[in-house]
Amino acid sequence: MTAGTLFVCGTPIGNLEDASHRLLRILGEVDLIAAEDTRHTRKLLSHFGIRTPLTSFHAYSEKGKAETLMAALRQGKTVALVSDAGMPAISDPGGPLIAEVLAAGLPVEVIPGPSALLTALLLSGLQSDRFVFEGFVPRKGRRKTFERWRDEERTIIFYESPYRVLGTLREIRETLGDRRVAVCRELTKKFEEVFRGPVSDALAHFEAKTPKGEFTLVLEGAVEKVQETVQVPVDPELRSAFDALVENGADRRAAVKELASRYRLRRREVYDALFKNGK
């Protein structure tokens, strides 16, 4: 190990068998483990017989504790950063600390591990080559968040609380329509469940049973809109209207804007009709 290294470690999201040999070696060799919840991480360490000292590093202590960890790293100590599940800094503490360590010129190594968002994406059966991760849906301004997704064509992945998942599904149905969704619950755990189907069906399913556990939702992106067939004016008509506007003092840009509004066309369509042949 290189002295002063921060190891960013991915830990199991449920099934402890997903812990890699490299992860267990690193956790056993570092001087200190910074954990989101020491009680949770202690169960993982106890299962594998690891006795490395623990310190807490959660959202409420992140800023102040980062200074302590930076001091330890500058002294040449090695530190492993872990969250309760999956990769640190993905909707969990750690991002600013990683940036600060790198800015100080100290080494950072990532120990790849399980990821709830990627696991859910592959289980969803939805488009997986292009996607966007939105973390947790904010408690305030939720409708604006969903409206922002209206034209997002990539698959959308986000986390949700079991207490808000029904409300989220209702708002998505009202805002975005009855898209396909995969609602993933308790991934890799004993009671793992994945419901796939239209949002309305998912809503009915979870209204019939109390939502419990940790949820990751994968939502179908916006289907590319089929453009309405527009009756483009014949070139002579459009040309005549354009010439008349120019003769009355309008410049080329203003004339195109006026014609686009008059004939309900895009400006690009007007440009193409008038000038694509170099006229």
Summarize the structure.
This protein is of the alpha/beta class and 279 residues long. It contains eleven helices and ten strands. The protein folds into three domains: 6-114, Tetrapyrrole methylase, N-terminal domain (Cobalt-precorrin-4 Transmethylase, domain 1); 117-219, Methyltransferase, Cobalt-precorrin-4 Transmethylase, Domain 2, CATH 3.30.950; 235-275, no CATH class.
Describe the structure.
The structure is a single chain. With 279 residues, this protein is of the alpha/beta class. The chain has three domains: 6-114, Tetrapyrrole methylase, N-terminal domain (Cobalt-precorrin-4 Transmethylase, domain 1, 3-Layer(aba) Sandwich), CATH 3.40.1010; 117-219, Tetrapyrrole methylase, C-terminal domain (Methyltransferase, Cobalt-precorrin-4 Transmethylase, Domain 2, 2-Layer Sandwich); 235-275, no CATH class. It contains eleven helices and ten strands. The protein has helices spanning 21-29, 38-47, 62-74, 95-103, 116-124, 142-148, 165-176, 199-207, 235-247, 252-262, 267-275; strands at residues 6-9, 32-35, 54-56, 79-82, 108-111, 131-136, 155-160, 180-185, 193-198, 215-219. The protein has a five-stranded parallel sheet with strand order 3-2-4-1-5, with helices on both faces. β8 (180-185) and β9 (193-198) form a beta hairpin. The chain is elongated, with a radius of gyration of 27 Å. Mean pLDDT is 90; it is low at 226-230.
